[in-house]
């Protein structure tokens, strides 16, 4: 019996020790410099209501693959993950085990990641008296506070309640400090799976009224709570001072306005009651209450009541309606923007199916001017209208039609014109009869005059048909045979006859341009769909191998890769049929002598889109596909300037015969990775190098060698100029002069550093294209790059 008890005691001790190792949780609510938080450790408030630690948003944890982790505070006792505060909401980390939350030597609470020299996130306390006993404590209210010592009565020198994310908890003062001028904001998450700051925010009215306002993009006010009446806000009677029950209130609201501050606060009388106010990802201010009986959050209040009242909820050129659920419908002539990130969020709106013809250099298009589509039942006219002196609807239409920037007009005794995207259109209010006329390309609308013209022609044709029935039947059978000669291969790509491609390209007469592997021609299918036909030259593959490779490339689909529609393989003839890109290639916009200047925002989104396309080729496909010829000429732009990487299949089509690629790359000075010349193995990092060199050109608006050519000095090679100016913080001076300095300095600095990392001598020092995307999105920090050795030698050659 003694032996049994002895071993039982030993076994219990072993289990106890193992439990500490398997569940390394902080038992306390306090964080110190000597006891950082890492991995699956967490702080738990004294009563266990709240926890702080590393988490993944529910949308990611449920099966997403982003690998992003954040430091946050959540309810600890309920089964539904409900995060109420996020520290590093714009800078996620990717490995909690190699990261830790700790108190730094200067008394700040910081999130550190191994191998990074600076914190990913910091409390940024200034004028702090450094104290070795500084601690961070998670309170029962859900407030994380930093104190100079562990004494619970000491004042907080920093608290999470002063740095709200999307949630307002009971006991938090929400308003403005009149002494410091600091106003608190609730800012929505971007997506349910992305806590980075979204487009919607709630704050105290900046005009001085005692009410709260919801804003879109921190600029457009679209909802207000109404002024505080002493018992509630005028527009939200649900939020009364007694909490809806004057006899036994479980929670109360109050609004305080004095010389020091103005703020709103709600308090809970019953500690068992869980209640929170959130600015939702779709722009509503919502109050939720946890109901144990159903183990779920129930919505208690939302404002505005109608989701269609949220500014930009459906994005541009989309109509909002709401019965039981929100519905966004693209206007005639528009289709959903592919940048809408999930089915429940349509804030990216819609984009044109066909570009406007106004200002087009194509003379055939100029003969068919833009027209207008009338949308009726609009409950409110869009913002930013500009009035004109037109006195009738015809003059109003002409005023819009004669200005290529005008997107819509309205006439009701007064002529109003819009020169920006049309948002906030809705048809869910029956008693509104506003009409607005939306500008579209002529091909998107029927033309009554043209209809009459074709009616007459139709009558003539019918008459001729009666006279020459036999000839018509023969012609019909001929056309039918031609249609049936086009069939689908592998269920997706169209296998064209060579004669078909001759027909749709008018015997290859409309040449769009030429590349390393042949010429490209414009064609039209069925009289409506425009395509680009690339006639390949010098490929040595047999027909069987060519068809196999084309089939593989045809199954690769990504918004930033040009879509292959079909092919032709007849004898020695090899042709590829692609979707047509109306805005041509990137080099035409960067280096062309005429045409509009690409804004910095457009350039940055183009750079990001190219990176996403290449990342998909390198890591998203079953086999890694290297492009081998990244340059502005091979980046095409659609009607909305979304970039498409072109010729991405040619490296695969020519197999391992890289000599032609090498030769063609030498023909375009400035994009060739060093390993092509040194005999090293060629990997996807060669594409990264070419991308970096192209990124320099996107920044400068010139070919890299043009700087040297204009001065005759090797020291004016643009990548070298950037590398030398980066440590000085002067890169904005090297920005394309056509931008006149109109650019986001942080994005310019980030892009310049990234470009320098991409062109490092050794491939291992270059980032992957997936990392390039993360850096451009601001999800991964980028350090100061070293000057590549060959650039140093390039500069030294000037001496």
TrEMBL record:
<dbReference type="Pfam" id="PF00069">
    <property type="entry name" value="Pkinase"/>
</dbReference>
<feature type="domain" description="Bulb-type lectin">
    <location>
        <begin position="28"/>
        <end position="159"/>
    </location>
</feature>
<feature type="domain" description="Apple">
    <location>
        <begin position="358"/>
        <end position="441"/>
    </location>
</feature>
<dbReference type="GO" id="GO:0004674">
    <property type="term" value="F:protein serine/threonine kinase activity"/>
</dbReference>
<dbReference type="GO" id="GO:0005524">
    <property type="term" value="F:ATP binding"/>
</dbReference>
<keyword id="KW-0430">Lectin</keyword>
<dbReference type="Pfam" id="PF08276">
    <property type="entry name" value="PAN_2"/>
</dbReference>
<keyword id="KW-1003">Cell membrane</keyword>
<dbReference type="GO" id="GO:0106310">
    <property type="term" value="F:protein serine kinase activity"/>
</dbReference>
<keyword id="KW-0723">Serine/threonine-protein kinase</keyword>
<dbReference type="InterPro" id="IPR008271">
    <property type="entry name" value="Ser/Thr_kinase_AS"/>
</dbReference>
<dbReference type="InterPro" id="IPR011009">
    <property type="entry name" value="Kinase-like_dom_sf"/>
</dbReference>
<keyword id="KW-1015">Disulfide bond</keyword>
<keyword id="KW-0808">Transferase</keyword>
<dbReference type="GO" id="GO:0005886">
    <property type="term" value="C:plasma membrane"/>
</dbReference>
<comment type="similarity">
    <text>Belongs to the protein kinase superfamily. Ser/Thr protein kinase family.</text>
</comment>
<keyword id="KW-0325">Glycoprotein</keyword>
<keyword id="KW-0245">EGF-like domain</keyword>
<protein>
    <recommendedName>
        <fullName>Receptor-like serine/threonine-protein kinase</fullName>
        <ecNumber>2.7.11.1</ecNumber>
    </recommendedName>
</protein>
<dbReference type="InterPro" id="IPR000858">
    <property type="entry name" value="S_locus_glycoprot_dom"/>
</dbReference>
<keyword id="KW-0732">Signal</keyword>
<dbReference type="InterPro" id="IPR017441">
    <property type="entry name" value="Protein_kinase_ATP_BS"/>
</dbReference>
<dbReference type="GO" id="GO:0030246">
    <property type="term" value="F:carbohydrate binding"/>
</dbReference>
<keyword id="KW-1133">Transmembrane helix</keyword>
<dbReference type="Pfam" id="PF01453">
    <property type="entry name" value="B_lectin"/>
</dbReference>
<keyword id="KW-0812">Transmembrane</keyword>
<keyword id="KW-0418">Kinase</keyword>
<dbReference type="InterPro" id="IPR003609">
    <property type="entry name" value="Pan_app"/>
</dbReference>
<dbReference type="InterPro" id="IPR024171">
    <property type="entry name" value="SRK-like_kinase"/>
</dbReference>
<dbReference type="InterPro" id="IPR001480">
    <property type="entry name" value="Bulb-type_lectin_dom"/>
</dbReference>
<keyword id="KW-0547">Nucleotide-binding</keyword>
<feature type="transmembrane region" description="Helical">
    <location>
        <begin position="454"/>
        <end position="477"/>
    </location>
</feature>
<dbReference type="GO" id="GO:0048544">
    <property type="term" value="P:recognition of pollen"/>
</dbReference>
<dbReference type="GO" id="GO:0051707">
    <property type="term" value="P:response to other organism"/>
</dbReference>
<keyword id="KW-0067">ATP-binding</keyword>
<dbReference type="InterPro" id="IPR000719">
    <property type="entry name" value="Prot_kinase_dom"/>
</dbReference>
<feature type="binding site">
    <location>
        <position position="534"/>
    </location>
    <ligand>
        <name>ATP</name>
    </ligand>
</feature>
<feature type="domain" description="Protein kinase">
    <location>
        <begin position="506"/>
        <end position="779"/>
    </location>
</feature>
<dbReference type="Pfam" id="PF00954">
    <property type="entry name" value="S_locus_glycop"/>
</dbReference>
<dbReference type="InterPro" id="IPR036426">
    <property type="entry name" value="Bulb-type_lectin_dom_sf"/>
</dbReference>
<keyword id="KW-0472">Membrane</keyword>
<feature type="signal peptide">
    <location>
        <begin position="1"/>
        <end position="27"/>
    </location>
</feature>
């Amino acid at each position: 019996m003694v032996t049994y008890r002895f071993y039982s005691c030993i076994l219990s001790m072993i289990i106890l020790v193992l439990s500490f190792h398997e569940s390394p949780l902080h038992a306390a609510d306090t964080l110190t410099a000597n006891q950082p938080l890492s991995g699956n450790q967490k702080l738990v408030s004294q009563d266990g209501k709240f926890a702080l630690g590393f988490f993944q948003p529910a949308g990611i944890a449920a099966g997403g693959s982003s690998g992003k982790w954040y430091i946050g505070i959540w309810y600890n006792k309920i089964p539904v993950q409900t995060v109420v505060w996020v520290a590093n909401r714009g800078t996620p980390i990717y490995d909690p085990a190699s990261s830790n939350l700790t108190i730094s030597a200067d008394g700040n609470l910081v999130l550190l990641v191994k191998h990074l020299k600076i914190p990913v996130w910091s409390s940024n306390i200034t004028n702090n008296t450094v104290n070795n006993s500084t601690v961070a404590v998670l309170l029962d209210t859900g407030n994380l506070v930093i104190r100079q010592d562990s004494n619970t009565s000491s004042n907080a020198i920093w608290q999470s309640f002063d740095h709200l994310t999307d949630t307002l908890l009971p006991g938090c003062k929400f308003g403005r400090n009149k002494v410091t001028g600091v106003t608190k904001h609730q800012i929505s998450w971007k997506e349910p799976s992305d806590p980075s700051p979204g487009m919607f925010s709630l704050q105290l009215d900046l005009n001085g009224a005692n009410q709260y306002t919801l804003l879109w993009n921190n600029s457009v006010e679209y909802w207000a709570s109404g002024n505080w009446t002493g018992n509630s806000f005028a527009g939200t009677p649900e939020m009364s001072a007694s909490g809806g029950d004057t006899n036994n209130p479980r929670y109360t609201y109050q609004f305080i306005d004095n010389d020091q501050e103005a703020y709103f606060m709600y308090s809970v009388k019953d500690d068992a009651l869980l209640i929170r106010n959130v600015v939702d990802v779709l722009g509503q201010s919502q109050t939720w209450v946890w109901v144990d009986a159903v183990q779920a959050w129930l919505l208690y209040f939302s404002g505005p009541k109608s989701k269609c009242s949220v500014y930009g909820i459906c994005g541009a050129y989309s109509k909002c309606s709401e019965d039981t659920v929100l519905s966004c419908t693209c206007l005639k002539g528009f289709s959903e923007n592919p940048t809408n990130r999930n089915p429940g969020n349509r804030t990216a709106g819609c984009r044109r199916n066909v570009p406007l013809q106004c200002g087009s250099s194509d003379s055939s298009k100029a003969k068919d001017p833009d027209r207008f589509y009338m949308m009726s039942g609009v409950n409110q006219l869009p913002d930013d209208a500009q009035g004109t002196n037109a006195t009738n609807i015809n003059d109003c239409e002409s005023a819009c039609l004669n200005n290529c920037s005008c997107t819509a007009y309205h006439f009701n005794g007064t002529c109003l014109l819009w020169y920006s995207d049309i948002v906030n259109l809705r048809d869910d209010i029956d008693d509104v009869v506003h009409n607005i006329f939306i500008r579209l390309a002529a091909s998107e609308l029927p033309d009554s005059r043209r209809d009459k013209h074709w009616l007459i022609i139709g009558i003539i044709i019918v008459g001729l048909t009666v006279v020459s029935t036999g000839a018509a039947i023969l012609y019909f059978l001929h056309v039918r045979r031609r249609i049936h000669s086009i069939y689908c291969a592998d269920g997706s790509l169209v296998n064209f006859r060579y004669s078909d491609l001759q027909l749709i390209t008018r015997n290859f007469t409309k040449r769009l341009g030429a590349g390393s592997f042949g010429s490209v021609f414009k064609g039209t299918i069925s009289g409506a769909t425009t395509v680009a036909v690339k006639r390949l030259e010098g490929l040595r593959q047999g027909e069987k191998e060519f068809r196999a490779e084309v089939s593989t490339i045809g199954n690769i689909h990504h918004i930033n890769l040009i879509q292959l529609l079909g092919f032709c393989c007849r004898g020695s003839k090899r042709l590829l049929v692609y979707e047509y890109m109306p805005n041509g290639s990137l080099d035409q916009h960067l280096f062309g002598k005429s045409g509009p200047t690409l804004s910095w925002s457009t350039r940055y989104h183009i750079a990001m889109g190219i990176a996403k396309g290449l990342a998909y080729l390198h890591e998203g496909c079953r086999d890694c596909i290297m492009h081998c010829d990244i340059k502005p000429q091979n980046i095409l732009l659609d009607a909305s300037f979304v970039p498409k990487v072109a010729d991405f299949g040619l490296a695969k089509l020519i197999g391992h015969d890289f000599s032609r690629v090498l030769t063609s790359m030498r023909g375009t000075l400035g994009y060739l990775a060093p390993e092509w010349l040194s005999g090293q193995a060629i990997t996807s990092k060669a594409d990264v190098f070419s991308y970096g060199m192209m990124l320099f050109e996107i920044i400068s608006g010139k070919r890299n060698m043009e700087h040297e050519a204009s001065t005759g000095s090797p020291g004016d090679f643009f990548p070298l100029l950037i590398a030398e100016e980066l440590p000085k913080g002067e890169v904005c001076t090297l920005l394309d002069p056509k931008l006149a300095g109109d650019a986001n300095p942080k994005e310019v600095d980030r892009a310049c550093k990234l470009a320098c990392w991409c062109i490092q001598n050794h491939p291992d020092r270059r980032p992957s294209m997936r990392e390039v995307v993360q850096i451009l999105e601001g999800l991964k920090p980028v350090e100061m790059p070293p000057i590549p050795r060959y650039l140093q030698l390039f500069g030294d050659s000037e001496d």
